[in-house]
Amino acid sequence: MLSTETELFKVLTPTKINCKLLFHGVTNDPIFLYNKDIHHKTNLKIMLPQVQRISERILKVDNFENVAHVCCDWEEFVFEVAEWGVDHICGVEFDDLTDEAIKELDTFIASFGCSPSDPHPCSKYANPIFA
Hints:
By secondary structure, this protein is mainly alpha-helical. The protein has seven helices and two strands, in the order H-H-H-H-H-H-E-E-H. A hairpin with a 2-residue loop joins strand 1 (88-89) and strand 2 (92-93).
């Protein structure tokens, strides 16, 4: 059994964490610090399992990530990758996603920089310049 928080902190921390938080009085909870360290390494918020699997695959596959940079929402991303014959990612069928999952994926795709209010010039949301 671990006798002190310091020993627990050493066990739970596989890498060095910025310990300024610990000494400046923000928190001394080792589990909080460990989770904060893991969050910064993954840069993903807590998501539904299907959404997390899709998000991680988009980040791993360069072609998917490139498409995500020009899309404003999940619907537009699905439309673009459908041109390649893609109708699922990581075993998750696009048609099986719930409204909540689609909302989270909209937020994830918008995190690449484009949104319906600030679309990429090639987006379906962009104002046509030759109209």
